[in-house]
Amino acid sequence: MGASSHTRAPARAARGADALLAFAAAMARGRQGEAGRALQRARRAGWPRRAAEETALMLVLHAGYPAALEALAVLAHEWPGAPHRAPERGPARRRRDGARLCRRVYGGTAPRLIENVRRLHPSLARWMIEEGYGRVLSRPGLGAVERELVAVAVLAACGWERQLVSHLLGAARVGAPRERVGAAFAIGRRMAETRARAGTARAWRRAFGAPSRGAAVDRPRARS
Q: What's the DSSP call for residue 3?
């Protein structure tokens, strides 16, 4: 996760990435102790504090302000440090950046998505592009692949089936390998309520088809 990941051994980098995903999913479910332990694993694996900070800030979108606030409090306790202050961009720049990233995540379905959200409420459609994709998800500190994997883990943990389908596909569109998408899905799904797991399984099937022996829903692995 992040621009410096090429400097770490692949296995160690993957462990750290999984730890950050576990941090996000645990905080979305209110499990502070589990989230703190995940942060320590990410720190030991050599991940920069800023990656954890950006992961916590993303929770505003997928789990709400309370989850983001509590996640930042856990981060401050487990991994003290000064927050990184990224310069704010103006509304026009955020709209441009947001529209560009939304097209990357949703591909050819982006116009239909925006129109569907606009029908629900035009303000929400504007906020989705300008605030969600433009202000939060276009920030430096985490790349599009890493952010989509965080989204997958959090949405699986919370059981938001329809949005989970979109971000499973979105992670693949921005270049996440299938085994990494599967790992993020599994990390989140382990934290979901039992009654929500059937929905997450449906989401995986809707995104990628019925799981094969090489990519089981409960324990996704790379296909041979």
A: G
CA 20 to each of CA 1, 35, 58, 187: distance values in angstroms, whole numbers, following the listed order: 9, 9, 12, 10
> Mean per-residue pLDDT for 166-183?
96
Q: Under CATH, which number does the domain 9-85+145-208 receive? A: 1.20.1290.10
Closest CA to 166 of 122, 221, 102: 102
Residue 212: name the closest of 187, 191, 182 by CA: 182
Alpha-carbon span 116 to 93, nearest angstrom = 23
Q: Does the global pTM surpass 0.85?
A: yes
CA proximity to 193, closest of 160, 144, 221 = 160
Q: What is the pLDDT of residues 13-64, one digit of tens each?
A: 788 999 999 999 999 999 999 999 999 999 999 999 999 999 999 999 999 9
Rounded CA-CA distance 75/64 in Å is 17
For the chain, the structural domain boundaries read: 9-85+145-208, 91-136
